[in-house]
């Protein structure tokens, strides 16, 4: 298995010292939960691309002393993937965020769609946003990602249309779309060879995207696409689309 990854503050990775101490929540998890011991290796990352591969020199209760074996920085991908995920009940939106993080999404945008049953207001909005951030962190560590996705603020229709208009390619997943996503991607260069690109994928709530929302998105330059013959849940559609995007770009 690859070495476990722990997310730390950038200050721990900016120096050139050969010995580091991992403490705090990540240190307790590494030392007391995962019980990493002398001689084992792990990776520290700041969530923005910088990383250090380390060997455990000594284990303590709640902390590890580490020797740095190698340092590096993973560059940002040339094509940036953004998932606009409608709020959904039963934590289906959290499932979507988890899967999208594993599929190497770069940003997730919570969207208050017209048919979203769940509503973020007041204290609930702040609490729910933190849950999305925690889900991204946990999934990013599991996937060994040195760059973690950004969790944007809650978007309404105006924000969504601005995103779609500014993107190099905006895709709305819709079960009644005439175009398939694969057909659209066949004619699109997703390698970023001609310069940085941003692709936005919009996923609606359980009840779907309203005709008014779809018309507004199309007017903003988005293309409605379907994935295939099956109708996917809001929790899985985004990850499926991201997998296809990766297959045409990052995973080549």
**Order of helical and strand elements:** EHEHEEEEHEHEHEEHEHEH
Terminal residue distance: 23 Å
Q: Count the beta strands.
A: 12
Strand content: 25-35%
List the helices and strands and how they pair.
Elements: E1 5-7, H1 11-14, E2 19-22, H2 24-33, E3 41-45, E4 50-60, E5 63-73, E6 79-86, H3 92-102, E7 107-111, H4 122-142, E8 150-151, H5 157-166, E9 169-173, E10 179-180, H6 181-186, E11 197-203, H7 211-219, E12 223-226, H8 234-248
Parallel strand pairs: 1-3, 6-7, 6-11, 7-8, 9-11, 9-12, 10-12
Antiparallel strand pairs: 2-5, 3-4, 4-5
Helix pairs in contact: 3-4, 3-8
Would you kindly provide a written description of the structure presented here, covering whatever features stand out?
The protein is α/β, with parallel strands linked by helices and 252 residues long. 34% of the residues lie in helices and 27% in strands. The protein has helices at residues 11-14, 24-33, 92-102, 122-142, 157-166, 181-186, 211-219, 234-248; strands at residues 5-7, 19-22, 41-45, 50-60, 63-73, 79-86, 107-111, 150-151, 169-173, 179-180, 197-203, 223-226. Strands 8-7-6-11-9-12-10 form a 7-stranded parallel β-sheet, with helices on both faces. Helix 3 (92-102) packs parallel to helix 4 and helix 3 packs parallel to helix 8 (234-248). It is elongated and about 60 Å long. The chain starts with a strand and ends with a helix.
